[in-house]
Amino acid sequence: MHAAGNADVSECLKVVVGVAGGIAAYKAAHVVRGFKELGHDVRVVPTESALNFVGAATFEALSGNPVSTTVFDAVDEVQHVRVGQEADLVVVVPATADFMARAAHGRADDLLTATLLVATCPVVLAPAMHTEMWNHPATRDNVAILRRHGTIVLDPAHGRLTGKDTGPGRLPEPEQIVSLALAAVENPRHFRRDFEGVRFMITAGGTREAIDPVRFIGNHSSGRQGFALAEMAAQRGAQVTVVAGHTDQLPTPLGANVVKVDSTLEMAKAAHEHSKLADVCIFAAAVADFRPASTAGAKMKKGVADDALSNIQLVENPDILATTVERRKAGEIPATTTMVGFAAETGDETTTPLELAKQKIVRKGCDLLMCNDVSGGQTFGATDNVGWLLSLDGEQWDVPRGSKFSVAGSILDAVSELRQEPQPAE
Ligand code: PMT
User: Fold this and answer.
1) Which of 3, 182, 205, 229 lies at a CB distance of 3.0 to 4.6 Å from 247, suitable for a disulfide?
2) What number does the ligand 1 atom closest to the CA of 227 have?
3) 343: Cβ below 6 Å to ligand 1?
4) Chain segment 51-102, per-residue pLDDT in tens
5) What is the pLDDT of residues 181-238, one digit of tens each?
């Protein structure tokens, strides 16, 4: 299948993993494994120099397919054309500065660059290089050319590089590359660079309200939906700060600055600070509505005379979304800041999740609201999501079932559209 619109990535895709010659080439082996574990058919196409870092035997064993670097292997099968034409997805891990220079200028001097020239499927490059090389005007130009041609060039991670230096240029984690590449197949338009320089504040994960040093009130949020929003916004050019509660040990969202918090009060304080600087605020966290009136300093005992453990007094937490909207009304936050809420609903005997969400958007006053049905254990902790997007002025769109990255892409599309609409005069 070739992708256009929201494609289903649960069927077996033909994935080409290209590998260029950089020290991060060993991580391509984990990327191959990641695609294979999801049931996809993987063909590895390294450059000659990549084989100085990892041998062909490793890639052949992991992919179960032959490996070649040159257009002169299997000439009778015209593989320089066939491999690219048949692919549903091409991912290059790592994309080095030299490889991107060749790809940007349409070179076809090995099997990998030739494959890129014939591929009509999404092509995703995961760059890895030293910061100076990433920042060099030649590389910046090449990235711009590739993006103009429709190639998805991921922004590299910020972190420890080979040697002692630290900075942007580190290869993203293999699982991030696999998730983002599959999101590109689901909908390549979700990777357009329409948020260059736009500042986002996103809440993610679950808050925990301490009862005593070992117990807390919490929920099943994994942080996946909030982190997917952060990564997708960053890949669209945004400057993203995530205020993150508990997040199931997910890797740091690529391209985002993360502020870790524990309780709702801590999340409220951090969201308050960062929303002042944001153009878009998205509230994807699952926030505890109540907290214990006091936290015991020592582990509480059960079965003791006052039995405080079976009689915990609760007090209401601040509603972070509602108060942020109020602060916008009061002029503390610019009127142009876009506010997006979530509604996690199960519905009940009389009211559907969608009806409850329609009441919620009016109560909270945010511009957009993503309603996800969380009944029957779905959504919390899952890798996929589905639901409806609502706008404050009564519009409603279906968000089709897809990965949380695809759902994030749909939400960001709606944000982008809303921000292009003329703002009412103040
Ligand atoms: O983290 P995952 O495992 O990926 O799961 C994703 C999710 C189900 C957590 C996510 O998609 C989601 O629905 N997040 C909102 C969960 C929630 O708390 O919903 P709510 O209907 O109770 O709250 C409505 C809105 O108000 C939400 O935007 C919430 O962040 C916000 N809120 C709620 C209470 C509170 N005290 N402060 C808030 O800001």
Assistant:
1) 205
2) 4
3) yes
4) 999 999 999 999 999 999 988 888 877 777 899 999 999 999 999 999 999 9
5) 999 999 999 999 999 999 999 999 999 999 999 999 999 999 999 999 999 999 999 9
Per DSSP, helices labelled H in 236-319 are 264-275
SS3 label, residue 77 = helix
Answer yes or no: is the C-beta of 353 below 6 A from any ligand 1 atom.
Answer: no
CB 98 near ligand 1, within 6 Å: no
| Ligand 1 pocket, residue 287 CB under 6 Å | yes
Residue 392, pLDDT above cutoff 70: yes
Which residue shows structure tokens 């289903």? 8
- Check residue 410 and give its pLDDT: 98
Cβ–Cβ under 8 Å, residues 247 and 204: yes
Res. 5 pLDDT band, cuts 50 70 90? low
Residue 381 in contact with ligand 1 by CB distance below 6 A: yes
- What torsion, rounded to 10 degrees, do the Cα atoms 235, 16, 8, 394 define? 20
How large is the C-alpha radius of gyration of the chain? 24
Q: Is 290's C-beta closer than 6 angstroms to any atom of ligand 1?
A: no
Among candidates 283, 303, 173, 146, which has minimal Cα distance to 221?
Answer: 283
The residue among 422 and 142 whose pLDDT is bigger is 142
Give the integer Cα–Cα distance in Å for 387 and 28: 34
Catalytic, 219? Answer: yes
Percentage of the chain beyond pLDDT 90 is 87
Residue 380 Cα to ligand 1 midpoint, Å, equals 10
- Res 256: pLDDT: 95
Task: Please tell me the predicted confidence (pLDDT) of residue 3.
Answer: 34
Q: Which residues contact 357 (CB under 8 A, 6 or more apart)?
A: 343, 345, 369, 371, 388, 390
Phi and psi based region of residue 147 (left: phi greater than 0; alpha: psi -120 to 50; beta: remaining): alpha
Nearest CA to ligand 1 atom 27: 342
Identify the residue whose C-alpha is closest to ligand 1 atom 25: 342
Q: Which atom of ligand 1 is nearest to the CA of 205?
A: 1
